[in-house]
Design a protein that fits this description.
This protein is an alpha+beta fold and 175 residues long. 47% of the residues lie in helices and 19% in strands. The chain has one domain: OmpA-like domain (60s Ribosomal Protein L30, Chain: A).
Length: 175
Amino acid sequence: MKTKIPTLLTIALLSINSNALAVTNAPVRVLEDTVLNFPAGGYSLSEVEATKLRNAISDAKAKGKITKIELAIWSDKEHPVTGELPKADEKLASERIEAVKKAIHEDVSKIERIHAYNMAENSHWLGRYFHSSKTDLDSAYSKDGSQELARADYSLIKQDGAPSKAVVIIKVREK
C-alpha cells in the first residue's frame, strides 16, 4: 500500500497541472509534400505522377500516422489577380482534384481529412490570398483561427504551385 501512495500523489499533482502531461506527450507534426504535373487539358495522373504520389504517402506513413492531406490544384492557366477564369478551367481543376483524391484513397483508404483547393477558383481562403502581398498575408496570419493552412503549408503551395500542377501536403503525427 505504501508504494501506491506516491503514484497516486503524482497522478493527482499532474492532473492539477494539465500542461505537465501535454508537454511531454505533445504530438509533433511533420510534413511530407510532393508536386504532381498534369498534361495540358488532362486530368488523369500519369504512371510517373501516380508513383510520385504513392512514394510520398509511403514516406509519410514511415514517419508516423497521416492526420491530414491538403491539395492545391491548378487548371492550365494562371488565375488572374483580378477577375475569374472560365468555368472550363474550374471544371478541369475539379476533375484533377477528384483524380488525386481517388489515387490517395487507393493507398490510404481510411483518411477522411483531405482538404482540396481548386486554384482556378477565387472563392476560398487560399485563392483570395494567393496573389496577396506579404503585408496582407501577415495580417491574415495574425488573426487567430482565420486561416485553415499553416504558414509553412502556404509557403510550399506558393513556392511550388503553378498551372498544370498539384501540390500535395501530407501532415503526419510522428511515431
